[in-house]
Amino acid sequence: MKLFFVAAFLAVAAAVPSSYKPEYKAPSSPAPNYPAPKYPTTSYPAPAYPAPAYPAPAYPAPAYPAPAYPAPAYNKDNKYADITITSQSDERNLDGSSQWSYAQSDYTTREESQVQKKMQGVTYDSYGKESYGEVLGNTNKGSSYWVSPEGQKFTLTWAADEAGFQPKGDHLPVAPVHEYELPVAPVHEYELPVAPVHIPFNGKGYKIY
């Protein structure tokens, strides 16, 4: 029996061609997926450079020649050179009023005062709109006295308020006064016409009253 199996195996081996080679297939394995390696970030300290030190430039100081001004020439014959202030006052008040005066050695004097007063005038609001009403204004009055180089004496007084500037003085020109008779309209004398009177009739010769 054993001989039979050996003979059968030999017969099969003899029947297989000598060129037969077994075919092997390479195993197909998936490509491995490796995570990307993580490397630590290198941190370098910022380099510290010393601040450069530059020497301050030295500029020579400019030399300017001193200006030469001519000496003022005063007129020795000036007759006003010896005039001095003999008295003076100046007062300012919290209510807006004030008064001041002065007198000189040549007899010239002046005094002036002002006060605030409510009056009618034009005002403007913050938008520039014009309106007419009560405003607060300054009134002024004063007087002055002086002597001209020819020896003539002058006195001037004035007032300034809502009526304007009103100076008074004997040396001021005066407007001429024209005196004339006003013309009289002519009088026409004539007799007024009389309207005619119509007396109606009734058509039979009788008047109708």
Written overview of the protein:
Helix content is 7%, strand content 30%. The chain is built from 1 helix and 6 strands; from the N terminus they run H-E-E-E-E-E-E. It has one helix at residues 2-15, and strands at residues 85-92, 98-104, 109-124, 130-147, 153-161, 164-168. The protein has a 6-stranded antiparallel beta sheet, with no helix packed on it. Strand 1 (85-92) and strand 2 (98-104) form a beta hairpin. The longest helix is centred in the N-terminal third of the chain and has 14 residues, at 2-15. The termini are far apart. The model has no long low-confidence stretch (mean pLDDT 80). Keywords: Cuticle, Signal. InterPro entries: Cuticle_Struct_Prot (IPR050468), Insect_cuticle (IPR000618).
Topology readout:
Elements: H1 2-15, E1 85-92, E2 98-104, E3 109-124, E4 130-147, E5 153-161, E6 164-168
Antiparallel strand pairs: 1-2, 2-3, 3-4, 4-5, 5-6
Pfam families: Chitin_bind_4 (PF00379)
Keywords: Cuticle, Signal
Protein name: Cuticle protein
Compact summary:
Helix content is 7%, strand content 30%. With 209 residues, it is mainly beta.
Largest sheet: 6 strands, antiparallel
Helix share of residues? Answer: under 10%
Read across the widest sheet, the strand sequence of neighbours is: 1-2-3-4-5-6
Q: Based on helices, strands and strand pairing, what is the structural class? A: mainly beta
- The poorly predicted ranges are none
Total number of beta strands: 6
How many helices does DSSP assign? 1
Measure the end-to-end span: 192 Å
User: Could you give the order of the helices and strands?
Assistant: HEEEEEE
In round numbers, the mean pLDDT is 80
Signal peptide: 1-15
Protein name: Cuticle protein
InterPro entries: Cuticle_Struct_Prot (IPR050468), Insect_cuticle (IPR000618)
Pfam families: Chitin_bind_4 (PF00379)
